[in-house]
Amino acid sequence: MLDVLTYMFDYLFEEAEQNNAHEINDSELKAHLSDAGFDVAGIDKALSWLENIATLQDGKIKPFDLIHQTSMRIYTDAEQSKLDAKARGFLLFMENVGQLDANQREMIIEQVMSLGDTGIELEDLKWVVMMVLGNSVDGEISAQWLESIVFLDENRTLQ
Known about the structure:
With 159 residues, this protein is an all-alpha fold.
């Protein structure tokens, strides 16, 4: 499913950069993804996954109301097996630099857990972070900054 999501995100980002005036509807997006070789079930799962982000962002579901800024996040065994130490460290880093709040972190973790893959690589986590933050209604985040997250070289520091 992550392959469908990253391909879709690239496609939509490319369309936005080219300043195509029309909005891409679901059927057009599904047709494009199908033409790219993705199966219908995978496309539907990816779109549902994105819809869940939108639902969380719109406040229709509020599973994280009790999170306080002074709280500490303890990861479950299942979360630790899905998110290795590098991935958890990246989420902590994002919080520490003020680019991610506790609610957004929980949305990211929830979305990662729903991916179904056994583990998630740091590079894939960065895509998930970018998708969640890119759909955030809590504040404007520059596209350049989001792109720098995904393409950040682990041996360099983020500026």
